Amino acid sequence: DTGVSQNPRHKITKRGQNVTFRCDPISEHNRLYWYRQTLGQGPEFLTYFQNEAQLEKSRLLSDRFSAERPKGSFSTLEIQRTEQGDSAMYLCASSLFQGASTDTQYFGPGTRLTVL
Amino acid sequence: KNQVEQSPQSLIILEGKNCTLQCNYTVSPFSNLRWYKQDTGRGPVSLTIMTFSENTKSNGRYTATLDADTKQSSLHITASQLSDSASYICVVSTIGGNKLTFGTGTQLKVEL
Questions:
Q1: Burial of B1 (0-12, 13-18, 19+ CB in 10 A)
Q2: What is the pLDDT of residue A115?
Q3: What's the whole-number mean pLDDT along residues A61-79?
Q4: Which candidate in B40, B98, B106, B107 is best for mutational testing of the A interface (most A CBs within 10 A)?
């Protein structure tokens, strides 16, 4: 257990429905990242926050995806009008960034999304 | 385009044996390289982080090496255990960048 929690762990939904995932980072960590991982592949970067500010978004993050971190603590990732191609493991990671790029990212267990 | 390639794609070894996993990268400008272990259905867990100036770093039975000139890294696992069965992912970060570029991983299976 890295101290990063994600809920739910599994989500099955029908195409066209909206889903929301939650990530609770390690409490003192100022950075929070979202990744998507499909079977047999490494995680792909989606977006990251420093405190409550969303500093970068990947081109993978289409208009149907939105992420928030309103109080600089937990974060939510919402997918609207889900498509079958959205089926993947969604990973959250957090880190304590203090100026060096060698901050260790601690990953949560992931939320596995299946879109039928 | 920043890329990280790992080999072999999968590996089966007997318990107690050693193995070495390879990683080649074309990420630039290079900042650091990490090895993660990911158990099935779980998030990745960091094993080592190496910067440009570091050639080797150990974490228990795991030893990572880095050759920044040839842009290659290896992860050596000594005296393998059944619990080492997992995917091992090589991850590279760029200077000033906040995105990590992940390899596709080497799936290791340790058998009796």
A1: exposed
A2: 97
A3: 93
A4: B98
pLDDT tens readout for residues B28-70: 888 899 999 999 888 999 999 998 889 999 999 999 999 999 9
Is residue B12 less than 8 Å (CB to CB) from chain A?
Answer: no
Write the burial class of residue B94 (CB in 10 Å: 0-12 exposed, 13-18 middle, 19+ buried).
middle
Q: How far is Cα A67 from Cα A76, in angstroms, rounded to an integer? A: 6
Q: What is the rounded CA–CA span in Å between residue A42 and residue B11?
A: 17
* Nearest Cβ partner for B95 among A41, A58, A101: A101
Q: Best residue in B42, B50, B59 to probe A by mutation, most A CBs within 10 Å?
A: B42
